[in-house]
Specification:
Elements: E1 7-18, E2 21-32, E3 36-40, H1 47-54, E4 62-67, E5 70-71, H2 75-79, E6 82-85, H3 97-107, H4 112-125, H5 141-152, E7 159-163, H6 171-188, E8 191-195, H7 199-205, E9 208-213, E10 216-222, H8 223-227, E11 234-238, H9 244-252, E12 257-264, E13 269-274, H10 283-298, E14 305-308, H11 313-325
Parallel strand pairs: 3-8, 3-9, 6-7, 7-8
Antiparallel strand pairs: 1-2, 1-4, 4-5, 9-10, 11-13, 11-14, 12-13
Helix pairs in contact: 3-4
Length: 326
């Protein structure tokens, strides 16, 4: 599909059971080219089953999905449209990165010369052109992950599935790999499905998110829209540990405050619950921040950090998955 406004992957009511246990209960979502979609859920939520179905490893019990208009009943055609980096990908140690990528290019039907040109292009794309002639056994973990991403891109896929690509990397390596993933989506219009347990990295680079719990979707949509579904009546305030008691006393005096509790005496964090939901619908909502902070400042209590509890993807994730379990 040339129009990036049209979804390149569409899933409709996908279901899968293992015996009497329903692993997936009606998964529906779509992905547009050039966008990164975070696929989230606690252990046992159905993520692995979903990815196995979408990458044609297994068939759904019911429902449909398509890639570039190709129905899932034609898995061999879909495999030519997708790339996959699994969580645990083994690499041959006694061949070079260049040889590895050339081999996979030939597997996809490229003549030898074209496969070599493609390998050079991919090595440059993932920042490994200087190490392309080195043995993979000499690569660091981060370099092997980059080669894995390059392999997933050998066939110029429309959709790439990346499962925990930054696992085991140091902070700099994580940052560089996430920047590479974003670059791939933006530069080539590739749709990326990113599975990760790191909610901060999902929040940092993903355009959209799907959250699963117990085999069903509990929410989906653009990340900023999902953040708006978080709890809106709780704030976190960090102050010096020595000021915890007077801060609790001052905040409790405010009529808009229902409860003030400690999140940890050693960290200095207070959890402030309001008497109503702060959803931005009236002027009272916009003034509560100033009143909370003003009460502490007037009492001479320094404020080290201040945030709405529902303002992070982790907060929304925990809230929605907990509600789904109840």
């Amino acid at each position: 599909m040339d129009d990036q406004n049209q979804p390149i992957l569409i899933a409709e009511e996908l279901r899968k059971s293992y015996g009497q246990r329903a692993a997936l209960r009606g998964l529906s979502f779509s992905l547009q080219g050039g966008r990164v979609l975070g696929f989230l859920g606690p252990n046992g939520a159905g993520k692995t089953t979903s990815i196995r179905i979408l990458t044609t490893i297994m068939q759904p019990d019911s429902g449909n999905f398509s890639v570039d208009g190709i129905n899932h009943k034609h898995p061999e055609k879909i495999r030519r449209k997708i790339g996959v980096l699994p969580e645990s990908l083994g690499f041959p140690r006694q061949i070079t990165g260049f040889e590895y990528l050339t081999y996979y290019g030939q597997l996809y039907g490229l003549p030898t010369g074209a496969a070599k040109d493609n390998a050079r292009r991919l090595l440059s794309e993932v920042g490994l052109e200087a190490r392309g002639k080195s043995l993979i056994g000499s690569y660091s973990h981060g370099m092997r992950q980059r080669v894995g991403i390059a392999r997933a891109l050998v066939n110029k896929p429309l959709v790439v599935f990346l499962d925990e690509p930054t696992l085991g990397l140091d902070p700099r390596g994580q940052q560089e790999l996430l920047a590479l993933i974003q670059h791939i989506a933006r530069e080539y219009g590739t749709g990326v499905i990113l599975c990760s347990h790191s909610l901060s990295e999902i929040e940092g680079i993903c355009d959209d998110v799907v959250i699963l719990s117990s085999g069903q979707v509990v929410t989906q949509g653009p990340v900023n829209q999902i953040l708006g579904k978080g709890q809106r009546n709780v704030y976190r305030i960090q102050i010096p540990v020595t000021d915890l008691a007077p801060a609790q006393e001052e905040l409790t005096k405010l009529s808009a405050v229902l409860r003030v509790s400690l999140l940890g005496e050693m960290s200095g964090w207070l959890r402030v619950e309001l008497t109503y939901s702060n959803n931005g619908s009236n002027p009272e909502d916009y003034s509560i921040n100033n009143r909370l902070l003003g009460a502490l400042i007037q009492a001479g209590i320094p404020v080290m950090s201040f945030e709405a509890e529902g303002s992070r993807l982790q907060d929304v994730f925990l809230q929605l998955t907990e509600e789904a379990i109840k």
